[in-house]
Amino acid sequence: MDEINLLKKFNLKMKKSPDISKKVLDQYSTYASASLLFREISQMKKNSKIKYIFVIKTASLYNLINFFPKQESFLIFSGLRSFLKHLFSGFNCMINLRIYKYILELIKDDSSKGLDRVSEKLRNNLKKINPKYIFLETDIWPYERLLISISKELGIKVVIVQHGIFTDGLHDGDGETADIFLSYDAYSSQIIKAINNNVNTIEVGSLSKNLLKKKFLKRRVVCFIGQPIPLIFPEYKKNYLSLISSLDSKFCDLGVNFFYKPHPAESQEEYLKYIKNKTKLDSENCFARFDYFLSLTSSLSFEASLLGKVSAMIETNWLNSNISKSQYCHFIKEEDLLNNTNELFNLLPRKSNNLKNYNKGNLEDRLNYLAAELSKIHG
Predict the structure, then answer these.
(1) Distance between CA 75 and CA 93 in Å, rounded?
(2) Domain limits of the chain?
(3) I need a labelling partner for 126 at 20 to 30 A (CA). Which of 25, 259, 314, 326 fits?
(4) Model's pTM, two decimal places?
(5) Degrees (nearest 5) of the Cα angle 366, 208, 260?
(6) What is the pLDDT of residues 199-250, one digit of tens each?
(7) Per-residue pLDDT averaged across 285-302, rounded?
(8) Which strand (E) or helix (H) includes residue 228?
(9) What residues contact 342, with CB distance under 8 A and at least 6 apart?
(10) Quick check: 308 and 214 in contact, CB under 8 A?
């Protein structure tokens, strides 16, 4: 079956990195996509005509779903809090927390019968809903691959929404199965088209809630936007933790408070207890609290820059050596930042110069543009 073949690449990756497999299983039982699996679609309102399915892993799709007609949308959640938030909102929605772990276990056990059974249940439920589009934040993980393969078989258009920053030197195949890819800008579209000749890209920028500029007060407090690099790339764990430790020491020498904002997928990582200053603020409050941001490839760096903050991505020779091509914000080489840390405070806020059809920072305008582009592509 096509969807089983799509999983082979992932299975090989797991076999090459045996140390990561247990962590992946544990993390994605909580943080991965929700599922149509093993559930009848009893939550759907009677006579609903669903056109759009949204597989929601993070809050980045919240503004997108609010743009679409509630009676025509079906939301699939991975988190209990987000599910409850939308349960009485008028949307058709459901939740299942364990599908990712279950599918990964089937892959590890090489259980073709189990995967066939999963595929059949997904296929039957997708047939019941019969949407026109399915929106996802990624297409590289097994659950998404199953959904995408079956969706294509049933004639459902696959829309991938960019989540996170990638470059031609740091890209793991996101978008290679998409019919439509909603990208940040022309640079991201170029990368996607290089691996998927048939994709239609729509450059919508960030879909964040509020991109009105915030005050830049030059407060000498730094927020490092964390990412689960040691989980995804265990071979870079030492490099990543060494960078965090070195920055903490450098800023301490300057009398500057340095805070680390953990990514949700890092919540169970043991190394967090060795990082002294951590902030639990959400992104909106972080943007209000801090004026200076550092990261490796986080999409929050892009948003911070659009909000009028000093945001810099650290270009390393071990992970993201080509990231400065993206022009999303400032870029500082790792060795330059460590050798002259105080230089960060000489930078001024900037805005990305390579955004197309995206200048005013008005979410409603961007979503209207998105609707018009979808209409032009598929009628």
Answers:
(1) 4
(2) 2-161, 221-346
(3) 25
(4) 0.74
(5) 155
(6) 999 887 777 655 556 777 889 999 999 988 887 788 899 999 999 999 999 9
(7) 89
(8) none
(9) 254
(10) yes
